[in-house]
Amino acid sequence: MSSLANGEDEESLVDPLLLSNHHDFSLRRRNTTSQLALVGANVCPIQSLDYEIIENAFFKEDWRSRGKIQIFQYIFMKWVLCLLIGLVVSLVGFFINLGVENVAGTKFVITSNMMLEKRYWTAFFVFTASDFGLTLFASLFTALVSPAAAGSGIPEVKAYLNGVDLPNIFTPRTLIGKILGIISAVSSSLLIGKAGPMVHISSSIATLLGQGGSEKYHLTWKWLDVFKNDRDRRDLVTCGAAAGIAAAFRAPVGGVLWRGALLWRAFFSTAVVAIMLRGFMDFCYSGKCGLFGTGGLIMFNVTSENFVYHLDDVPPVLLLGVIGGILGALFNFILKKVLRIYNLIHGKGIVYQIFLACSVSIFTSCLLFGLPWLASCQACPSGASEDCPTIGRSGNYKKFQCAPGHYNDLASLIFNTNDDAIRNLFSHSTDSEFHGSSMLIFFVTCFFLSIFSYGIVAPSGLFVPVIVTGASYGRYVGMLIGSSTSLNNGLFAVLGAASLLGGSMRVTVSVCVMLLELTNNLLLLPLVMVVLLVSKTVADGLNANVYDMLMMLKGFPYLESHAEPYMRQLTVADVATRPLLCFQGIEKVRNIVDMLRNSRHNGFPVIDEPPHSESPVLFGLILRAHLIVLLKKKVFFRTPVGLDVFDQFSSVDFAKGASGIRDKIEDIELTDEEMEMYIDLHPFSNASPYTVVETMSLAKALILFRQIGLRHMLVIPNTPDRPPAVGILTRHDFMPEHIYGLYPSLANRARWKRPRFRLPFLSESAFRQTPPCTEIGQRKKQPKTSTPGTAITTTFEEYEK
Amino acid sequence: MSSLANGEDEESLVDPLLLSNHHDFSLRRRNTTSQLALVGANVCPIQSLDYEIIENAFFKEDWRSRGKIQIFQYIFMKWVLCLLIGLVVSLVGFFINLGVENVAGTKFVITSNMMLEKRYWTAFFVFTASDFGLTLFASLFTALVSPAAAGSGIPEVKAYLNGVDLPNIFTPRTLIGKILGIISAVSSSLLIGKAGPMVHISSSIATLLGQGGSEKYHLTWKWLDVFKNDRDRRDLVTCGAAAGIAAAFRAPVGGVLWRGALLWRAFFSTAVVAIMLRGFMDFCYSGKCGLFGTGGLIMFNVTSENFVYHLDDVPPVLLLGVIGGILGALFNFILKKVLRIYNLIHGKGIVYQIFLACSVSIFTSCLLFGLPWLASCQACPSGASEDCPTIGRSGNYKKFQCAPGHYNDLASLIFNTNDDAIRNLFSHSTDSEFHGSSMLIFFVTCFFLSIFSYGIVAPSGLFVPVIVTGASYGRYVGMLIGSSTSLNNGLFAVLGAASLLGGSMRVTVSVCVMLLELTNNLLLLPLVMVVLLVSKTVADGLNANVYDMLMMLKGFPYLESHAEPYMRQLTVADVATRPLLCFQGIEKVRNIVDMLRNSRHNGFPVIDEPPHSESPVLFGLILRAHLIVLLKKKVFFRTPVGLDVFDQFSSVDFAKGASGIRDKIEDIELTDEEMEMYIDLHPFSNASPYTVVETMSLAKALILFRQIGLRHMLVIPNTPDRPPAVGILTRHDFMPEHIYGLYPSLANRARWKRPRFRLPFLSESAFRQTPPCTEIGQRKKQPKTSTPGTAITTTFEEYEK
Q1: Is-contact B531 B262, C-beta < 8 A?
Q2: Mutant choice from A82, A83, A693 vs B, greatest count of B C-beta within 10 A
Q3: Contact B522 A523 (CB under 8 A)
Q4: What are A686's strand-pairing partners?
Q5: Can you give the residue ranges of the CBS domain (chains A, B) (predicted)?
């Protein structure tokens, strides 16, 4: 075993996680902050994914041994999986919509009928009780069975695609929890959406399909073994996420664009979803789906005849964008504060979590039922295209408490499912239907209910709440502007929704396409683009987008695609992990076991040293997971020689299981005799690791790391007479918190920061207070028990609860 | 000057381009095929672009010295430029449409009036003569004034964005030639499109705006100096290309997606274009634009009321996709053969070029005028929504030679502008309007006219011809299937257009969005997606997409984003450029001048050697362009020391001009005394070049090179006691032709090739026969006269003519 120590200074602020008195390590400089996720000042052992192609001799040989048929089989299975993803996702999406429409619909029909009979208190009681029951079920199920199912799921999927390995997010348990939870939570009239959970559900489905059955019961399909690696799994998740968006919004292209990477197979999956949904709608059109009708699959057709806008409609639209941007940033800001408070409450135990969810439910029910009483009844318009008031079904004119021939405009919005509310808001030629005061009340109610509903312990999406809020805001602005514009209020609602989406989520192009697909009005496109650009620009000047904020709160080490200016002032040597732990090409078993037990590193350089080579030569990089496979198989030699061992392994041995099920070094038992034997690491080392010279600027190294999607990057010296590898870079070495920790002065050099207009009350210092992960101190006290797997689970669930 | 020789074998098949007897070089292994573009077996000195951020001390210091205001100014200017691009592109696009509609419209009105008076021969003569005159003008102008304006321009823009520096493509002369040429060529009834040229025009506008005036007359705007580098220019070209697509198709989002990279500023530019076009349409609506009407801006509204499709419509759509894919591949195949014949004709001189263009024009005119006589006249339908026959304007029912109350269906398609033909084909509720035989004649005519019209010496796009051909094919299939489907013939035309676009161009997602934006029918989306996927898959099995084919014919070293399997079997050391020419950190002027004069390399490693360092250390990489700036400024020292020279340079000195205007080493005159002095290269060397270890597999190196968009990548040794850099990789080292040249056995190892179903008559061997670039032999005979600039121009124009 080689030990390399190449630091100059002796800084050791905290004890290292590896035991420093361990045989021949000579740790001169310790960088305790790397290779274990560092968020704030906390060590959070979230791992990274291996997207890199491991080019080792074994895999090359294995690939070479495959016939054309096996290669064809692999390509064929890729497409079949995408077809299956499309089919299953559309089925599940349809099932969820069917569930929500029927449960919520029945509730509203029963309540409305009681209202018709003027049994107002009974109606209120039934409404509140059913909401309460549904929320209780959703939160109990989430808290007790599948804590990872709470929340939107989009931050998790986004982090996964970024290369962060989060355990339990794609398990069957989470999937079931999310499906049942979202049906009951959305049916309970909470202001939450089903789009985010739908994306999470679809990604889970994709992963599980790729898994090809349960590993526990040995029911796996051999053809799918080749998909058991992070790279293929990422592609599946991409297809799944795209299919999820397609199913949630019937927006196939928007789904494909969501990740930025254009994957043909994702395109295929979304096309399958779109066609299947069309089939389901045909089926439901004949009335076989209960209260489902055809509207359950969100689609707001705002096509109006001869819609024309002029250049003088642009200024009000710009104004809408500016205010929308400010509102979006404010939304994110308040949401963050509320989530921090919820986090404190959730930390006290499951009872508190359930209590919080139920409180929000009762509060919501009271508001929904109570507020419409504030609005005055209005006479039905003569010659309306639909019945007024609408009874027993969705529509623009809710009767609520009004006399016959009258309707309650606020109830039409608030005492309704979110989908119907959006449909009412987006509807055209209804400019005189809603009062300004009703619209304002609705907007304020939605704004705060969205924020207070998101963080509860139940699946909950943000997309639909933001659309409802934005649409009511836009429609209100349209009412204020009145007749001086050629745009009707329905179009203002669409633009308002776009402005709040741009201000809160900032994912401009995909949101643009999604909104277009949702509203089926392409002529609106340029205005939507302008609104999104303006609101995104304004909001970006104020704070981070909502998903980044959520990921930061959850402590995911998300790697941005751009380098910050201060990174140009640093070289990779300034931040790289030290000391570097290396293996020799032919290594003693004892050394491997010791190193794996005493470090948490996941990649180790393999260096050939004399006498096996003339001088120390970098051979490659070996993964912890592969080392453990080698140790388990016990293909050891008594003497330090390299022999052909290919026939003793199959590629299945190296397959990586999903969802954090990893073999641990602690589970491997070796005799003393075996410990003294040798392993030839050459055939299993990635002989083409990506490397950077130590003088490379950190900014450029980050671009390399992020663009190629690496987990480990080796740092090599630029002078001779030194070891062939002098450090290793991982995701965590690029985290701003890590760099600021090493060089506190950088954090203060505002010169190199992006110019961001910061209001004093919007400070971001709050981030570093609540630790989502275990503290360094805690981890040190129990270095044996907190193995990576369990440690992550605990810390992760801590937040989710 | 250091000399590094690190090959083992002595292969020197051809004489090297650098003189081997030059002082202390010791060239042991010569790789003559790199650093100069290698296409087929020809040396083609097309250069690459520098997208990499040059992180040298000078630029860092320069950036540091800028105040916040200058940084803000830079960001502000970026957005202002995008606004300007949007405004100018929409103006130019409008002008082109206005020109085409009025010129072509006048021609058709005059001819139709003569037809009404039954002066058929006069009409034919006027029609043919005006077409001939317009084509003559377009081809003369292109051949004599701006040869780079010929063709579509999309391959050039695509190659530019890929990092290939093609001279003259973005000059004012090319811009004017393209604008005037496309107006006259499209007006002359040739079956060519204006979308491709529009993209080229818009990219030129973007580059010229970034240039900020003419350098020749010293009319440059200082604020724009920071944009004079390849990186910012690429972003401008991206915005320009997106704006061009938006202007051509009124498809803003499709434009943004075109390149794959999502750039907010491109989004902004396209939004500006969309809004401006809306303004122009408002203006024209009042009849101020002559024959322009509002239809000139292509937009085919195929929204039909209550459009519904069912699952059983999917099989015919799949069939459409399969046949479309085969047709698309056949289109590409025939186009390639025709272009090769045209190339031979064009090589004989300008007269032949003009003659060819005029022949195609006369042939086209005869077909357009003659074919409708084959079709029988049909009685006008009773109760049609528009006048029948339509006289003096565009419409579905052309009278042509028919009696009153009758129309000629083939004339409606063929004796019309392409835009009107597409509108007729896409129109719904006109299923009985066209005869099957007319449609078949039209399809066959379009298919071959598209192919024969593309290669003439005039600006010509492929997009609209492919849409027309595909739409007629789709409509014909729709007619054959008849009433067993719920889709009308207009929708079949849209799907047919999609299938041929997918089969020929294969750019699926952007085409999908463009078609949607063109047809304003989102419900059709899933079917369009399926058709595109099927046709792309089928066609990919047969041959390469049309743009790749064009780029290959033109000899552009386009770098694919994926690695071929055989690349995993090679290491970078196997293909890297050798011998490596290096500079010392402080280098003698004479050595620099000699090396620049005797090599064509554009990047040189800078190595610190004793006594300036303890051992040879890689400092960085310096560009030829920067060396020439240093030599021109003559900041030399009498002794080999490094002194601070920052104040003698400004960043403007290092600005890179557009369109191949580069200072040449031959133009710099130095005295003997100056030749003996020294330059300190350290402050001007990129201290963070991207590097790979020599054992890195070529596949992974390619991914790194392509993903980050590099021009030079240094190869470093993996053993000590060797020079710190042992090779350099450029774009040309990754070209399959180069690798096959070095390792001919690879070309035969079909095992590692993608399984491609190849028909014997579709062989690709034709590629390597006609040299688009000068031969190695030629180049060797005149090493002094063929400087990079002129050499490229010649070879490039050779093809274009």
Answers
A1: no
A2: A693
A3: no
A4: A621
A5: 684-745
